[in-house]
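Item description
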Amino acid sequence: MAYVTGVDTGGTFTDTVIVADDGSRVTGKAPTTPDRPEEGVVASLANAAETLDRPLEDVLADTSVLFHGTTLTTNTVLERTGGDVGLVTTRGHRDALHIGRTTTRTKGLSQQEMQHYAAQSKPQPLVPKANVRELDERTDYAGEEVVSLDDDQVRDAVADLADDVDAIAVNLLWSFRNADHERRVGEIAADVAPDTPTYLSHEVVPKLGEYERGATTAVNAYTAPVLADYVDDLASALSDRGLDAPVYLMKSTGGAMPLTEVENDAVATINSGPAGGVIGSQFIGDAVGEPNLICTDVGGTSFDVGLVIDGDHQVRATSAVQQYSLYQLSVDIESIGSGGGSVAWIDDGGALQVGPESAGADPGPACYDLGGDRPTVTDADLVLGYLNPEYFLGGRRELDVDAARAAMREHVADPLGVSVEEAAASVFEIVNGAMADLLRQVTVERGHDPRNFSIFAYGGAGPLHASFYGEDLGTQSTIVPLGDTASVFSAFGISTSNVGWVEEMSNPAVAPFDADDLAETFEELEDRIESDFESQGFDTDAVSYDREVDLRYKGQVHQVSVPVPTGDLADADVDDLLERFEAKYESLYGPGSTYAEAEVELAHQRVRGSGDTTNPTLAASAEGGDARTDARDVYWPDRSAFVETAIYDGDRLTPGDAVDGPAVVQLPDTTVTVRPHQRATVDDYRNIIIE
């Protein structure tokens, strides 16, 4: 028996999915251990191994590949727990990271936070001004040297920094055009301070935009030592327990990289957590013939939404963390602070609000009975009858209904002058409405017709709320993937990812573009990726490449990514490229929004390389029986009342079974709701399809 394993470390739980070569699956879950995250990984793996009734050492010995996703780098930036970073830059530009852009003050903030603009400020600098050293050097926009580099000045700058910092970032002006000066700085740094890692901006992200390039390089330097230490500890912990198989780390691009590469590309793991769910949705969608998906993940603190269109997950060229704009390609995911732990509260105007503050895992919702006394979405779900207090997490945690009701009464019902049930129903409908609004933003407001999509619902609370937040969009169906695996679906998605590298380069030009110049740049980027795969022992003939360019109308800030065919390019390909740019522009911004008289600018060229790994096998279990267990009163907004509702044991549902609403399907780690006018069916892979 050989296993493909995915492990996802989240803020509250570390989830594991182990898939055998016959397609059978088991899941594991353990509390995340922030101080020693590898211990949470081992505990989660051990929990899954226990389900297999095998020692962990035997399971790891039979594992052919292990994929891992972590929030470590994201949390390192958010919690400011990284090392001290020094910055070497061109004279006159030491304040670039501190000044930022005009949008830095609100970058990455929620709509609610942006409503209080005066209360916002720029992020605390990752690199204090005292740790910045300037060099008397200059390369111009064409890549021509204007002022030569002084080696002695570089030595002094590096020696001065090395005593006080853990890593050095180098960001020289126009280095993406001519990297000679940065390379020389790197050579001198390796000689003067060999124990201090140095990161060069043209290697991290060779793109136009001094601030974004510098911020990305600084974040990489800030997080890389922390991530490198972690993966060393993780590799040792797994090896000591018998793992002798490759381990890959999930990236925000949706691909994975070997552990040996993390120090060079730590920034690629920023915001990589939610990417696994989208990649898993794409994998399942391909298997069941669903090419267009709205991927929704409801966890304890957030609601994450991504799209799969025509079988491909959508990406964006930039991302943000702690208000820093990063040149980091990532799966395009939008998030709001709505999850099971979102706190319900009354604002100064007497209106009920839900989130974005979360009770987290400690103390958690009031019903956890761990000291929390503020009502949350989970408390509302419990009061309304959707959750079985004796079967939460498969019975591993009993919920306190009285504590949930007391918190709802004190903080919501009494201030509003309503009953506890009415208060809980209001919390429930507000959070569902906020989730539905986000779905509209990522579909209708981007020119996509939701009627052409199905919703994938996963995460601990996604299957419970999906039949509500997806109803008004008119989507084809709502799908809870792989039964109870939905609760740990990001871990499953991580296990389906391929090894991937992305290479980008700024190549500013104005249309008509030179086809030979475009092709030459693409070939250079592909050569870099091929070298990366060769270094890992991959058969480069099996590597696939996707090309794209970022285009915009002259003078605009935002760009549109357009795919480019592989191989040699002719003038006709360039003409077709411009036509597809205008078509995509109109699809995003509406008919008639293009401006034919305006010049089109080329900003960046990009290549994504993907190498296949061992993907998990999909198969369904035929085991089952009479799935209906009992009935209880559940509140349904359609009826504005509690209704006697059939309860089903989700583990006993088998392919071909059907459940008519109103119904609640209980699984060990999640709950599925079927509204009174809906019907759920189970397909061959135990996906629960609600229509």
About this structure: The radius of gyration is 26 Å. The mean pLDDT is 91. The chain has 17 helices and 35 strands. The first helix runs from residue 37 to 52.
